[in-house]
Amino acid sequence: MGSIYLIRHGQASFGADNYDVLSALGIRQAEILGAHLAQLGLRLDRCYSGGLFRQRHTADAALAQFRAAGLNVPSVEIDPAFNEFDADAVIRALLPELLPDEPEALNILHNAAQHRAEFQRLFSKLILRWVSGEHDKPGLQSWQDFVSQVQDGLERILTQAQSKQNIAVFTSGGTITALLRLITGIPPESAFELNWQIVNTSLSRLKFRGKEVSLASFNSHVHLELLKAPELITYR
Questions:
Q1: What value, to the nearest 5°, has the Cα angle with vertex 6 and ends 113 and 71?
Q2: Angle at which helices 87-98 and 116-132 cross, to 10°
Q3: Is the separation of the CB atoms in 131 and 189 below 8 Å?
Q4: Could you write out the DSSP letters of every residue in 82-123?
Q5: Residue 118: count of CB within 10 angstroms of its CB
Q6: pLDDT tens digit string along 92-136?
Q7: 71: which DSSP letter?
Q8: Which phi and psi (to 5°) does residue 144 adopt?
Q9: Is 211 helix (H, G, I), strand (E, B) or coil?
Q10: Helix pair 143-160, 173-184: axis angle to 10 deg
């Protein structure tokens, strides 16, 4: 069987004007991941990334560690199917209906870095509305359309893959969540409960034979745990 390694991007710039930039810690996380996999001698036959900067930067930083160890790695193929869903668009579209019950929501969302717990609570409520399909809005990508987008990307990989290949996909938590939904059949609400636990630069491993895919492991971040530095383990 072959393996697909789903790698979440390193820590992004939560609370900054541009979230889609790795923090200094996020770059370090990606380098640690790459060095760990290189030390294990993992041979990568193909590498994919979503088109977002934080995804591509994570791929570049991790794969540079392979090269530094004298290992060959393939060039990264960009596939927007593995982009994250547009969280800002979800918030903008669904927040107005929430405001009567959450009058402080705008202040919390505008100052997310200072209100992390409250931001997560509000964001979770909005996501549950989004995945329910009962609050779809014109111009907003639905949860089902997002899942279909991710499914198309997975099918492209499987069509091009050869037996026993190791394939890396540098992506985001929402994309991994959609894949969990597709592969395990887990309800989307339960999938997002797992989503909130996905660590930056963690690996979730899929095993495949032809078009058959199964989940082999989820959210492994031993490369960070081995360093015994709790600040390395982040979720945004």
A1: 110
A2: 90
A3: yes
A4: GSPP-HHHHHHHHHHHHTTT-TTHHHHHHTGGG-HHHHHHHH
A5: 17
A6: 999 999 899 888 888 888 887 788 888 888 999 999 999 998 999
A7: -
A8: -65, -40
A9: coil
A10: 80
What is the token pair recorded at 211?
A: 């078009």
Query: Is there a contact between 76 and 56 (Cβ–Cβ < 8 Å)?
Result: yes
Which residues in 181-223 belong to E strands, given as ranges?
Answer: 203-209, 212-220
The three-class DSSP label of residue 142 is coil
Given a cut of 70, is residue 16 above it in pLDDT?
Answer: no
Of 28, 4, 9, 29, which Cα lies nearest the Cα of 19? 9
The answer to whether 96 and 106 are in contact (CB under 8 A) is no
β pairing state of 46-49 and 76-78: parallel
Task: Kindly list the distances between the CA atom of residue 192 and the CA atoms of 54, 132, 181, 196, in Å, as whole numbers in the listed order.
Answer: 21, 12, 9, 6
Model confidence over 132-191: pLDDT tens digits? 989 999 999 999 999 999 999 999 999 999 999 999 999 999 999 999 999 999 999 999
Strand partners, 213: 208
Q: Measured between alpha carbons, how far is 73 from 67 in angstroms, rounded to an integer? A: 7
How confident is residue 15, by pLDDT bands cut at 50, 70 and 90?
low
- The average confidence (pLDDT) of the chain is 94
β-sheet bridge partners, residue 166:
3
Q: DSSP code of 154?
A: H
Smallest Cα–Cα separation from 19: which of 147, 172, 128, 132? 172
